[in-house]
What does this fold into?
Amino acid sequence: MSPRKTTPNPAPATPGPRDMILRMLQLKSGMKQDVYHRILGLFHELKEVLQEVAEDLEHEMVQRDKRVSVQYRDKGEMTCELKVAGDTVIFHMHTNVFRLDQGHSLWKTSYLEEDEQRGYFGVINVYNFLSDSFKYNRERDLGYLVSRLFLNKDGHFFVQGKRQLGFLYNDLAGNKMDREVLKQVIYSTIIYVLDFDLLTPPYDQVNQVTVSEMNEINAGLQLSTGKRLGFRFQADVDDLT
It folds into this structure.
């Protein structure tokens, strides 16, 4: 009996551009939708926690010093603010999903090496302004980016920021976001803002004022003001973590 002839298996067809597009839409774009819904849910929870924190601190300060106020305001779907005495902290959720820049040290961790999609994040930016800048409509006043909160598809996060905000929450693999952790991040942000003082600019920087500027001052549009205007401190100019 002659040996049975076997037909070799055909080589797998190379996926065409249409198949590649469909695969990318399913995997990458689908993952970005997961990240977006994660950060959107977190931002809604952030609003709730900010309101709780504001009400708690305001209640306590009424007993201690009625002149000091803490207030929360919802400014729309993507923005909210916390007014803490003379500071206004603005939280803004970006609508896009970002891939962590390739040079970031987190790419060298096993957490991202195991799954590259963990390196895509939704972002909440946190800004610090002087409350008087809004009260007196000083449009040229400066605000500062205090921190950025990054959240991935699995609910892991890290915070990029100055001082304690840069090192308290930098363990992406170990940081899983929940309501209590979110409250601690908010507390850390408030502490940083309250400790970030308004400093006078150098005398030689402001010793001349034009007629136009004086007219603006008289009209309520005062000279540009910011917490670090004219001064640079090493603790504040270090690169963000």
Summary: The helical segments are 17-64, 110-114, 131-135, 164-167, 179-195, 211-218, 234-237. The longest strand covers residues 87-99. Confidence is low (pLDDT under 50) at residues 229-239. The two ends are 75 Å apart (CA to CA).
